[in-house]
Structures are given as structure tokens and as C-alpha cells.
């Protein structure tokens, strides 16, 4: 587990899990807006003055740690607007787990896989993202959506495919925006 954290920012999984656990306890989007705004300002300031290396340390230029609070608030707001918790849990779970596993897998197997976009993305990382996102989708979609199993599997495949593509083609940590945005759009279209 220690080698896992040598490759991946500790903030990403820890911050995401705190958001997922805290979601049921907060009702008003105003509280989340305030918390995410404060987190964004702290992350931006620490990035600019080069402090908190455990949060911002990556092997490439990335703004992902700074951007992380934005989709958390957006997903919270959308889930409350549509009165559907899946709009929060699915995108934030993909950011917390699948995006972290993509970075870990890409770093771990970078010498044994195909690399894309000037070695910023790898086939191994994308496979880690795709497999984990499909499993997350199966767990959450089957829990939150009432439909026949073949339909739910198709939804999960579509969600995993689109979010994997979003993660693959988005550079410099902006996948922290495109992954939840694409997941939310797909959820809106299929539900």
C-alpha cells in the first residue's frame, strides 16, 4: 500500500472518500459550496506557493488537485436538483477510485504498456480506469436504478466507455472535470 501512495496523490482518494461518506449528512448545497470554495482556495494557494507536496506532487504538470472541489460541488448540486443521489455517488466514485487507479496503473506498468499523448496516458492506466469504472457502475446503477438487468448492464458499459474516453483524452488533471461531466450527461440521458 505504501508504494501505491508513492505514485498517487493522497488527497485524491482521501478527499473523495470523505466527500462520499459526508454526502448523506449535508442537505443544503450552500454548505457544500462554502466547503468546496474554501478547499479550492486552499488548494490553489498551496499550489501557487508550492506547499503541501503530498497533495500536489505528480510527475507531470497537473491541475487536478486544484480542480477537485469543483466537480464535487457540481455533482452535489445536480444530485439535489434531480433528487437522485446517483448523480453524486457515481461521478465522485469514478474520480475517487477509477481515476486514482488509472494513475497508479499507468505509473506501475508504464514501461510495459503502450503510451499516448507524449507519455501522459497509458493503455494500462486506461484499462485500470475502464475495469474499475465498469465495476463501480454495476454496483451503483444496480442499486439506484430500477430496470431489467440487461438494460442496466448496457447503461454500465456506456458509462464506463464514455468516462474512460474522457479520462484518456483529457490532460493536465482536467479529467477531474471531464469525467464527472461525461458521467452526469450520460446519467441525464439514460435516466
Structure description:
With 191 residues, this protein is mostly helical. It has ten helices and two strands, in the order H-H-H-H-H-H-H-E-E-H-H-H. The chain has helices at residues 2-7, 11-22, 29-48, 53-56, 64-67, 69-82, 86-108, 123-144, 149-169, 175-190; strands at residues 115-116, 121-122.
Biggest sheet: strands, sense, closure? 2 strands, antiparallel
- Summarize the amount of helix as a percent range: over 70%
Query: Into which percentage range does the β-strand content fall?
Result: under 5%
What's the helix-strand series? HHHHHHHEEHHH
The average pLDDT is 88
Distance from first to last alpha carbon: 37 Å
User: Radius of gyration, rounded?
Assistant: 16 Å
Structural class estimated from helices and strands: mainly alpha
For the largest sheet, list the strands in their spatial order. 1-2
- Global shape: flat
Number of strands: 2
Number of helices: 10
Regions with pLDDT < 50 over 5+ consecutive residues? Answer: 1-8
Keywords, please?
disordered N terminus, flat, 191 residues, two-stranded antiparallel sheet, 2 strands, 74% helix, mainly alpha, single chain
SSE inventory with pairings:
Layout: H1 2-7, H2 11-22, H3 29-48, H4 53-56, H5 64-67, H6 69-82, H7 86-108, E1 115-116, E2 121-122, H8 123-144, H9 149-169, H10 175-190
Antiparallel strand pairs: 1-2
Helix pairs in contact: 2-7, 3-6, 6-7, 6-10, 7-8, 7-10, 8-9, 9-10
Characterize this entry briefly.
The chain has 191 residues and is mainly α. It has ten helices and two strands, in the order αααααααββααα.
Amino acid at each position: 500500500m505504501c508504494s501505491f501512495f508513492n505514485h498517487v496523490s493522497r488527497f485524491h482518494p482521501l478527499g473523495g472518500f470523505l466527500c462520499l461518506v459526508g454526502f448523506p449528512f449535508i442537505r443544503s448545497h450552500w454548505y457544500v459550496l462554502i466547503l468546496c470554495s474554501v478547499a479550492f482556495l486552499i488548494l490553489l494557494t498551496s499550489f501557487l506557493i508550492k506547499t503541501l507536496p503530498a497533495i500536489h506532487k505528480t510527475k507531470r504538470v497537473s491541475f487536478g488537485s486544484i480542480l477537485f472541489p469543483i466537480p464535487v460541488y457540481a455533482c452535489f448540486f445536480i444530485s439535489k436538483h434531480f433528487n437522485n443521489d446517483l448523480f453524486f455517488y457515481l461521478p465522485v466514485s469514478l474520480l475517487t477510485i477509477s481515476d486514482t487507479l488509472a494513475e497508479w496503473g499507468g505509473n506501475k506498468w508504464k514501461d510495459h504498456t503502450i503510451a499516448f499523448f507524449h507519455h501522459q496516458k497509458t493503455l494500462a492506466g486506461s484499462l485500470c480506469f475502464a475495469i474499475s469504472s465498469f465495476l463501480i457502475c454495476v454496483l451503483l446503477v444496480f442499486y439506484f436504478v430500477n430496470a431489467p438487468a440487461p438494460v442496466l448492464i448496457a447503461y454500465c458499459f456506456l458509462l464506463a466507455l464514455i468516462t474512460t474516453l474522457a479520462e484518456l483524452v483529457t490532460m493536465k488533471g482536467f479529467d477531474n472535470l471531464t469525467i464527472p461531466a461525461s458521467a452526469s450527461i450520460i446519467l441525464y440521458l439514460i435516466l
